Structures are given as C-alpha cells and as structure tokens.
C-alpha cells in the first residue's frame, strides 16, 4: 500500500513480515479446492516472494530496524550506537521500517532536500510501549570535544538537515545556537522509524531527552560556564592592569595568554554568538583561530618568561618563524578551518615538549625563572595529556570537556601567580626609581665608553684617564687647550676635525660623529670614534662639547684587511684579477685621453707547475710562486702593474715602454727571470714560462677583450712551448684553441642547460645506510660529450663563471635534497654536500646567496653542507672564519675537505665552525706494507675531540669500510658504495633502502 507522512514525502510498499517457519501471514492460500494445481501455484508464488524478500534483504537500506523502547520515566537515552549511518548514499534512500505492533514491515523512500545531492543518512526507530503520549527532544550537539581528532579535527557544524518519520507529522525544530534539537511525539503503542538527512558525514552524539531534564541539564552547565568565563575575564583584566603598572615583557605575554584563553572559552561556551552575529560556518573559523592564537600566546609567554631572546640568535629566529607560522595558521583558518586547528593542536603539544626540555636545561644550569616555572609547566603538560586523551576519544563523557575548560583557567591562574613573583621583586634599580641622569651615567659605565669634554669658554679639554693610559701618556697630559688635543691627531684628520668643531660652535647646534687617528707615545696610531654634541649656556652660546670616545682600531684594521684581501692575492700580496682589470681600464682611458703610453698586457703562465706541486708539495709551490713574483716585480718601473691572475699565472700592465723592440726585450727579460734557478734546501728548481703579449692599438676595445687577446697569445705559445713568448695576432683568434673554445661554450652552457649534477653516495658505516650525497658537477658538451670538472672548472675559476656555476649547483642540490627529505618522511634525514670555490668564498654576496637558497628550498637545518678545502680557508683565515660563522648561523652545515693535504694550523682549526672533516683518500689508501697510514687514527681522534664527524674518502673494498668503522669514522665515500649517479638513480636507491627498512 502507498502512504504519505506529514509534510514530507515517503512512498513504499507495506509487506507483512514472516511470523513463523511454516506459514506466511497474508500470503497463505486455501487448499480446499485447488488440489494439486492449487498447491503448485501456491508454491510458485511463495518461491517468487522468497526471492523478492532475499533480494530486498541484500540491500543495507532494506533491512528491518530494531526499535528502541522509550520509557516514560527515563530522563535521557543515548541513541548514538543505535543509529544506522549511510554515508554519501545519494539523493534518495529506501528504508525498511521497524515492525509495528502487528509485525508489519514497510518500505519507505525519502528524498533529499536538494535533488542530485549525495547526502548522508541516519536511520533509527523508536517505540512507545506505554498507554500515554510521550514528548521527547532529539538533540545532536554541533560541536563535541571528545573524539574530535587531532590532525583534521571536527570543529562542529549543523548535524541534521531534516527528519522524516515513517508515520505522523514531521518533528519540529527547536531554536538553539549550539545543537540541532527536534521535538518528537510518540503516540501510545506507536513504532516510528525516523530517517535523518545529515548536513555532513558525522553524527558524534544523538540523545533523546525529556524536555524538563534537558532544560535542567543546560541550566546547570550555563551556570558553570558563567563562573569559568567570569574568572577567566577577571584574570585577563588583572594581568592587563599589571602590565600597565609594570612594563616588562613578561606581563604583556601573560596578559595575552589570559585573553587568548578567554577568547577560546567564549567560543567554546557559545558566548561569542550572543555578542556578535556569527554566520553558520563562522564557528569553525573562530574556533580554529582561537586555538592557533592560544598556541601563539603560549609560545610568546614561554619565550619572554625564560628570556630566550638573550640566549642565542638562532633560537630567537626559530621562535620568530614559529610565531609567524602560527599567525599564518590564523589566516589558513578562513580557508580550511580543520587544517588550521590540526596545526594549532600539534603546535600546542610541541610547545609543551620543547618548553619542558628548555626548562629542564635551564633549571639544571641554575636559572631561577626556569625553576619557578616547573609547577606551571607540569600542570600544562597534564592538561595537554588529558586533552589528547579526550580529542582522541579515549576519554568520553559529559564531564571531560567542562573539566578541560576549568583546567585551562586554573593554568592561567597559576601563570598569574608565577609572574606576580617578579612584579615587585628587586631593588631600586629593578623598580626603575633612577632618574634620567643616573640612568645615562649607568649606561655610560656599562658601555665602557670614554668621556671627552671640551669647556669652550675656558678652552679646557678633559679626557678620561683610561684614554691617556691606553696611549701611554702621563695622566693629565691631554688636559688643556684644544690645540694640544689636535696636535696628537693624525695629520690627515686634523683639518677635518677642526672644521667639524668650528661648525658646531659657530652654528650652536649639530652633532659630531667622526672617526680619526690618535698618536700614541710610541708613535703608533689608534683609531677612535667620537660622538659628541654641544651644550648651550644661559647666553645661548656653546658652553661645552661633551661626548664619548670608542676605540675602533680593530674594526678599522679588519675593514682594511677585508678591502685589501678583496682586491689582492693572499699569498703574494699582488693585485688580483679584479684589481688588474680595474687598473687596465684606467690605463686605457689615460691612453685615449693622450695622457700616457698605450698599455701592453703580458700574461705569464708557468709551465708544468702542477708537477711541481705534486712533487714538492703545495707549501713549496707557494714559496716558488712568491719568489717568482718578487723577481718579476723587480723588472717593473713605476706606473707598471704586476698581478696574480690565477694559481700559476701572472699578468703585467706595462705602460713604461711603447717601442716594439723594447717590448720584445722586456718579454725576453721575463723569460730569463723565470728561468733563473731557484735554490730550495739543497736542491735547485728550474722553471719556465710561456708569455702572451697584447698591445692596445688604440681601437675601441674593452679591457676584457684586450686581456682575452693576451690569453689567446699565451695559450698559442703553450701549444708550441714551453718557454716561449708570442704576441697576439688576429689570426690566432680564428685558429681558436680548445681552451678559448671551451671558455666560449662554457659561457652559454648554463643557458643551454648543459651543466648537470651527479651525486655520489656517502654511507653511514654504523648501519650501512645512505647518509647523504656529494653533489658533483658535469658538463654535457654538445661536441665533446660529458666533461669532468678538471676539464672546465679551471677555466670557470679564471673567468669568474665559477660564481654562476657554484650558485647553480647550490640551488639544484638544495632543491633535490628537499625532495629526498620529503620522500623519506624524516627518517634518518639525508644531507647533501656542495663544494665551494675560492671565488665564492671571497664574494660578499655569498651569505645572501645561501640565505636565498635556504629560503626557497625546504631542507632540514644543517643538512645542506658546504665543503671548503683547508688550503682555501688558510688563504685568509680571519675572513674565512667570519664568513663561515655567518654561514653556520643561517642553518647550513660546514665540512672541511681534503683535510691533511695542506698546511692548516691546528690553532686556526679550532676557530672554524666546521661540523664535519673529510679525510683525503691518501690517508685512507693502504701503504706498501698493506696497512693504513698511522696519521689516520690521529686525524679521527682530533676530529672527535673538536666535536666533528669524520667522512673518509676513497673506500673501495669491504675491508676499507670495516677498518674505517673500527677507527671511529662515522661516514665513508668511495666506489665501494657507488659511483656518481643521477638524481633519479639516487631516488630509486633511497626508495629501495626505505623499503628494506620497513621490512
């Protein structure tokens, strides 16, 4: 039969259920007349009906429900476990109702409010076994803390869109801001099946309440919520007032935490909806934002209370990034509230764990604030643990959520008591009772600056006694006229200082901020920085000039060294390639203006100097280069320039000669100078050189082109050398040459994407797993095929292209490292090593380049390692130490490459912030007796004493790996573990390793 229920639409066929095993009520046929034919027809009908029933029973929505009895005297019934859910079932659902009092089961069909919507459905049945009508409230809370989840929590929303009963009128919806409530009426003896169209896919709780019992339940919690919000509001107001009275950073941090808790409670108690009009989906956004703000204010309180900003810059940077991320989470809440809440909840737990470690660490070191914070933080950890149990569903009852809210207020109360200990502690200085004069005096003492005072009307100068003591002068020797003071200034600074003080006195305003040199008693000069201002008298004239003096000698010396090292060679002190080009440009401009001779360029390249280094060592090679440089310098006249262009290559700008015969004689003199034997110990070393000559012919040539002409001539001489000099001819450029051709191709290799990276595995010896890779550069030349670094990096170093190649390698290695780490999921994080050239290390933009690379690529701190050879850092140890320290602070790792092959000083080694030492393969390779070099054990021990890890290069057999591990090496690299491979091959190798680890 067909029927329609109330205001909704429901169609179906009523079918009487089977009541016994041998009969079917409603479908029994008489057998008085039919005989055999009647029994056959009845059997066929029964078979058909049985098939229909079985087919209907095969659908989940066709099964008959078991009705829940609703007693008259029970205040509430939990229906959550009795509800059948059909998630994403469709825009209509067919349901078999619960059997009524006569045992009939009906089929009803309910359609969604929006046609075509794949709705979720909840189905349950209720029966009234009493003889009176029952009214009940069906309540589904919009938000429920227990079981809401951590990663993507359920932040609450409307649960039920509509309810359709199998009989009677549609239940009426009651007004409520925090729950879906429907009034259900059950007639005496009625059995009603209810089909609920869900707004979402979840129904955390569904209860059936007596109206009076539910009202009493809500009123009791309303009273509790009002008390909790009142206490939280008073705490927030009190801490805010305390912040106004005491302006230290602790109090605004504590006040912000209290206000965040108040905001969270107002949202959780639905109090915010009574103040402002919150849209339907706004509760989720506000709840996620409140949780993110709560995490951010807790982090601010921890940072300010423990004064973490004064412990380390990197720690403060981590906190700042963390806070910015939480601020971003508040913005994410508008787009994806569930994701934002999950991040906020994870951050709360992480703050609790990190805070505990910091508090324990500082408490062990005797930091009073950390000790006082222990009870508060233990309560916070207990609250976080309980909250984790609740949101994961391990604790689930009506009391846990109110208890958590109350515990949050107790936590803020304990925070208030903790910060109160600092509100009125300390003496007059802590209370800020000093006047401005005393405060400035204390600041001057704390800064260590020296007082300088000139009383203008009396022309009397007063200087702090420490100043005279530093200069080695007698006490009071500088007190007197300003003229006596000016006499000890450097001659180059006197006029500037005199003009400055005259201008201030004449104009009666302004400030003095000037650096100048002061002569000490022994004749040396110190740099001092003066900061002073005029003090006017009653007559409006300058009564005195008062200021401070700061010794900046070390700063000035460091600046001079940096400036000198930037344009000079560290070994010979000669101008480098950059300064050479600058002077060449100046010489060309003077020649064009007719103010001097046309410059002639000489490029001198020592023949087979690499063999000298291999045979005698780098230290001897450097001594020979220094000797050659001094001999060449003696051949020059004033105005000429000698520069070291590369490792064994020198350049000369000759402007003192212009006649071709004199130029040829000068070239021959250079060759003789280099050929002169150099005595070393009891041996003589003979060197030769090839010389390339290029004369500026007055054409509009750039300095780089003129230098390139000389280099082409030099390489042409080497082709027919050694010990040969050649002047540049235009035909040489057409003849080309491999080096020049390679240089031209190299300038376009990056644009054509011919430069590739390969990676050689670095193995962790403890577990034989891949710990990282060394990034190696290769050039896929279109004509010559793949070229090794030895074939083109020297050209790149000389031409300056090594900077672009190095930045390219750094960027690609960081990008690939980030991809590997994301694929590994944080298990034993992979690192990548990148070699740094001398040009890169000496560039002032290296720090900015590394900062930009780390900002663009998400890699774990310390896993992107820069490999620097010890010979490179020892070229300028002071500058290298400063640069490497800044690189380390950015979050990059540092490895000292080729350790033991140079001439590094152990005293300097302690100053460099390396975390890894790479031992050269020469110390790993067995000697003629089949044993490792004895010095290898010493190197490993030295590295461990300095807190560094050791990577051994050149491991080629299993025996090498076993012995290196026994010696204490953490990592090894060599053909035993794999040759350089592509990034895809590395990814497959890591994937296989991860699969083996899982199994």
TrEMBL record:
Annotated PROSITE patterns: EAL, GGDEF, PAC
Domain GGDEF: start-end pairs: 597-730
PANTHER family noted in UniProt: BIOFILM ARCHITECTURE MAINTENANCE PROTEIN MBAA, DIGUANYLATE CYCLASE DGCP
Alphabetical list of NCBIfam families matching this protein: GGDEF, sensory_box
One Pfam family, short name: PAS_3
Domain PAC: from-to ranges: 512-564
SMART domains the UniProt entry points to: EAL (SM00052), GGDEF (SM00267), PAC (SM00086)
Name by which UniProt lists this protein: Diguanylate cyclase/phosphodiesterase with PAS/PAC sensor(S)
CDD domains to which the protein is assigned, alphabetical: EAL (cd01948), GGDEF (cd01949), PAS (cd00130)
Transmembrane portions of the chain: 37-57, 223-243, 249-267, 288-308, 314-335, 342-364, 370-391, 403-424
Domain EAL as annotated: residue spans: 739-994
Keywords per UniProt: Membrane, Transmembrane, Transmembrane helix
Top-level taxon of the source organism: Bacteria
